[in-house]
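Internal QA ticket QA-208
Title: Verify multi-chain structure generation after dependency bump
Assignee: T.L.

Test input:
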Amino acid sequence: MMNNNGFMLKTNDLVKVFRTEEVETTALNKVNLEVKEGEFVAIMGPSGCGKSTLLNIIGLLDNPSSGEFFFNGLEVSRFKERQRTNLRKSNIGFVFQSFNLIDELTVYENVELPLLYMNVPSSERKKKVEVVLERMNISHRKKHFPQQLSGGQQQRVAIARAVVANPKLILADEPTGNLDSANGEEVMGLLTELNNEGTTIIIVTHSPSDAEKAHRIVQLFDGHIVTENQKKIL
Amino acid sequence: MREICIPISNFGEDEIAEVTLSVGYRKISYSFRIESFPWDLEGTKPEEYDDDRYHASIEQIMNLRKALTEYDKSWELVQIFTPCKGATHIQVLYRKRN
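Actual output:
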């Protein structure tokens, strides 16, 4: 069903419950969130409040237990894994705290990977990877393996991988969490630059100074959105 | 460097900490406040903990949401702190808007 009303993302009463044989944990409890195209949103809150769970659902890595989730006007909350994968790989780039690069692949190969999954022809892949490596100022390390790089360089490679397919949305889970302040500042600068060019950005962060870069800060507490703070008008 | 951590001993729940920072020739003033909102609400189900996670009651969430919404708009929320087990108040860090 198409119903985006100008929003790139919209959730209605989103609930996520994790169940084991003994325990049932409600990670998200009736979360209502709307994100416009081109917005930069920071999600904050104490550890265990549901930030990463929300990001995983928004990123189509997981389905909610109940509620609706509209992505570009499409109701996707009941999508099967294959449908979610197809939508994800052409629309969403991910940046993680621990970089999640593949140690056995070179910098170049890591960045090329999303394009391989999308069956982009070889010559076009080469061009796109070269451009993005240059932009992230890491092309001089393209033949290196992740373990040969500093944390800041690894995160720049991870951002290169996230943006190489030109996604509309970038989701970043604690992107500066494993970096020193100088590299953290650089990573936030790159995300801000991408947002200025029109990419929608959602970050999960514990850092008030990272959140300052966002247009809007959403505070989660124990699975509920308790407040939203509009910092800049889009 | 993006953050400076300033330990302040015996910082009262409703006190204001004013910080003046010099960066090069610029002086920047910040005012922070730790606000405390009631948490052990009468007649509500007490909060629960399991091994690694905190569970507030719906009444506590509603009360927190109302307190945050109605709070003085000249202050902006920076951080909500997870209350300790059995806490009577929940603490929230605010910064004065410029």
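Spot checks passed. Chain A has a mean pLDDT of 93.
Status: verified.
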